[in-house]
Input
Amino acid sequence: MAASEQIVEGGFAEPVFAAQSVFRAIMDAMARPGTVHGIGADAGPPAPLNAVAAAVALTLADADTPVWLDSDLTRNEAVRGWLSFHTGAPFAEMAADATFAIISNPATVPPLSGFALGTQEYPDRSTTLIVQVETLTDGPELTLAGPGIKKTQTIAPRPLPGHFEMQWRENNALYPRGIDIILAAPDAVACLPRTTRIANGEA
Output
């Protein structure tokens, strides 16, 4: 397939219906952290961007939301062209300037504290990370607690950014500031809002 075809093709076949469906799944996942919500995304982005991360970007990103890409995606002209064509979102050169960040390779993500963390007055002016993962159920288990979770909730994503539990506890400590994370597996999403605590090892 020619590069121009890769860029133009692969958007939602029915944009309004698809975006509504994906948005509902994201909102449900944010309201119930750690729960897995299937997405039958019909997006067909260029690799290495996966279909679910692409569907989330198509749903949330627009001309007013700068998007930061990790190094693997930044180097891929087809991915950059596809996102620009289908969302109209500008690209943020600095992680701290991004409304959304798309991470295709969690091993290379910069420290979470390097993204926009919001302010005390405007905590919503922070970055939401869209992190591609291979699985939400077959990685090392994380036990979650916090708002939207009755007692605890277990999720097992893989891979995650390095020293993730430590970084996430530091993110919790910034509340009401802090980042939120959307985990994008090949066919589903799960969310970690800034209010969610990793309870592994807690008494």
